[in-house]
Amino acid sequence: MKNLTADNRQNTRSMVQTAIFGAIIIIMAFTPFLGYIPLGFTRATIIHIPVILASLLLGPKKGAALGFLFGLTSFINNTMNPTITSFVFTPFYNLGEFEGGFGSVIICFLPRILVGVLPYYIYKLIKKIDKKSVSPWGLIIAGVTGSLVNTLLVMNLIFLFFRKAYAAANGVTVKAVYGFILSIIGMNGVPEAIVAGVLVFFIGRILMKRNIRERLGFINDFSD
């Protein structure tokens, strides 16, 4: 009976922790110029940072759920407040000849779900080498990886599903569209990854300490 009560408390605490991260994601997503920063041809984002931290603190399952929430906020934003290329993120937006489809759903959700999964396993792998209680390099690389998996998958899936429409929407030729995509990765993706690595390091090195995790009720310890 005591074990059952303890399990119920832990489940309740875990739900509350997940809800808090979810609330942070929603606030960032729908606060102008905070979570999504419009750049005309695309949007820069920092919403992946709480998803990465949730992956490390709550595990890959809850991280994936919060990554799905990240994707859902992008879906809503691109449907209700579109830019010229929003058709790559939602099938419910079109601009003349440019319209989304099933590929839009994949682009919007799959990379964001993986943002909540990969950082956990990257950090766990590095912890096998770095035996410190909190691995600085593990946090940095997990942050960079989480950010880059979003950028690289989104942009390459755009090329896979929408290269012609994306080229036309941005005024470039189909032959030159991948070069344009690489320029966006360089201008947006690389700075986003650096910021993610830095923020995950500074926030994570506090939250990942054993005494802090235990006090806040986070159960992941990467001891295995």
Automatic annotation (TrEMBL):
InterPro entries: ECF_trnsprt_substrate-spec (IPR024529). The chain crosses the membrane at residues 12-34, 40-59, 66-89, 101-122, 134-162, 177-203. Keywords: Membrane, Transmembrane, Transmembrane helix. Coiled coil: none annotated. GO terms for molecular function: transmembrane transporter activity. Pfam families: ECF_trnsprt (PF12822). This is Thiamine transporter protein (Thia_YuaJ).
